[in-house]
Amino acid sequence: MSNENVLFQVEDEELETTAQEDEGADSRKYLIFTVDDLKIGIDAEQVVELLNGYMATYLPMMPDYILGIFNMRGQIIPIMDIRLRLGKSPVEEGILIVIDYNNNQLGIQVDSVDLMLDIPNDSIVPIPSQSAQKLVSGMCTLPDGSGTMLVLDCEQLIARGYGD
Fold this sequence. Notes:
Elements: E1 5-9, H1 12-22, E2 27-35, E3 38-43, E4 47-52, E5 66-72, E6 75-81, H2 82-85, E7 95-101, E8 104-110, E9 112-120, E10 136-141, E11 148-152, H3 154-159
């Protein structure tokens, strides 16, 4: 952990407090990150940490978008390069978003993290059924007028994380 710089950490108590405050609310918090010019949002309740300066250990015989694994305080976390997973060219460095979905943790390397926004649930529309993009569950126009956000489907990301 000597090379890790924790940018953001969500404690379990904070998640419980947030969940209690949001009961009955008609919006969710999304952490918005970028990949080239795409804005992608992930449900903030699934975000564990944001890291900068982590060290990945290469694993042989894995898809090219799996950068390897890293040790986060004794827990081994696989790292996926979301750029490669989306068919884009790789970059040298990025921010690592550690997510937890149904007790499965995954590190996602992204270009940059923009902001966290409350997005009304009714503003998110499903993606067209003919779309080949299986890692996105919906999209919406951002309330701040900065463009369109794609909603990352963590269940599909983890389910399809190691193959198609």
